[in-house]
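Hey team,

Filing this mostly as a record. A colleague (T.K.) asked me to run one chain through the structure pipeline before their review meeting, and I want the input and output archived in the tracker in case anyone asks later how it was produced. No errors, nothing strange. Just documentation.

Input sequence:
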Amino acid sequence: MPTLIIKDKHSGKLTLPHYILINDRIVGLMKGEARVTVPAATFKVTVRSSIKFIESSAMVTTSEAVDTFLEFGDREKIWDIIFWIDMVLWFVKRLINLPEPWGLIYEILSNGFFAVWLMRVWIIRSGEYLH
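Output structure:
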């Protein structure tokens, strides 16, 4: 039987686990790489993040002779970098109080960026998740 090999491009970093679904049925939870033995056929493979609403699907055809590779990852690293910088600054702001108007300016920029980042994750990124 052929093997379906599903790999996370960013498995060496701190990553959340992902649910693996084949034909809309959960077959496991993975972090890094997963190997699933399947019969030769066409399957709908879905990789779902442990964060709700972030998932993507691809139709995958397996054959008896070869293993099938499916690789997924985040295409927009800059968004994640800026988000984590913002999270660190948010934590620091909880420890120290910024004087006005800097505190208000930070809140407006931070909340606006967070709203744009969430829209990016939920709307745009869902179709670009699998490669």
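Quick notes for T.K.: The beta strands are 3-8, 18-22, 25-30, 33-37, 42-49, 55-61, 68-72. The chain has two domains: 3-72, 77-127.
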